[in-house]
Design a protein that fits this description.
about 240 residues; alpha/beta; Rossmann fold; seven-stranded mixed beta sheet; globular
Length: about 240
């Protein structure tokens, strides 16, 4: 796989922050977080994962290892901070021992995925229904707390999203332990409620693994949408 991931940047500070978005969306999802981190002295580099945003879909079946390899070829090694959201958190967890950021932050990222035994074709069909969830009227109805610019960005990102490449990626992650290894100081910020860190037992498992867990009360899965100040507060001491 010869093509390198598309990046979007903010700031020119001496410290480097790498941002990895979740499924369906792309680097535009960080349009408020990126400048906020730049204001704290970071050069912020947000990637578009393969088949998302302006990064092309791969010419063969996409694996998690492929994705990690492309990430490592795209961003500087040993950044001061790396933040991964949802699917991007799973990618960061797989890359963290080689990327070696000074601090790693996982935002409502899964520890395990289950496809229900339905296979790749069903997964593509399901992801295509997820694309429909980003239509403007649907977002306005289901996520009225999202600011208008976030809804617009999500709609446009969904149109660029390659569901087939993502289905291949997810297929290779099913039933795999996606829990981050705390090889660097690690924080997980969870939604409230969280699908992926749903209860005290899940929090305890992460804490036992050496990961600090913080919750943003009332936040949805994309924790900072509509709650950027609360999200930044959750990063206190980590940025």
């Amino acid at each position: 796989m010869e093509k390198i991931l598309y990046t979007r940047e903010w700031g020119a500070g001496d410290r480097v922050a790498v941002l990895i978005h979740g499924m369906i969306t792309d680097s535009t999802s960080w349009h408020e977080v990126g400048p906020a981190l730049a204001g704290k002295g970071y050069r912020v580099i947000a990637v578009d994962l393969p088949g998302h945003g302006h990064s092309p879909a791969p010419e063969r079946d996409l694996t998690l290892e492929d994705t990690v390899g492309l990430l490592l070829r795209t961003v500087p090694a040993t950044p001061d901070l790396a933040i991964g959201h949802s699917l991007g958190g799973a990618v960061l967890a797989a890359a963290v021992d080689r990327l070696r950021p000074a601090r790693a932050v996982y935002v409502d990222s899964p520890q395990r995925l289950d496809d229900g035994g339905h296979g790749l074709e069903a997964a593509v069909a399901y992801l295509n229904t997820r694309r429909k969830s980003r239509e403007p009227d649907t977002l306005l109805r289901d996520r009225p707390w999202w600011p208008e610019q976030d809804r617009l960005n999500e709609t446009e990102a969904a149109l660029r999203w390659n569901t087939t490449s993502t289905a291949h990626l997810l297929a290779g992650m099913v039933d795999r332990d996606l829990t981050p290894a705390a090889v660097v100081p690690s924080l997980l910020i969870r939604a409230d409620p969280s699908e992926y860190v749903p209860d005290d037992a899940a929090v305890d498992r992460l804490t036992d693994a050496g990961i600090t867990v913080r919750t943003v009360p009332g936040a949805g899965h994309t924790v900072w949408y509509g709650r950027v100040p609360d999200f930044l507060d959750a990063l206190d001491g980590w940025i």
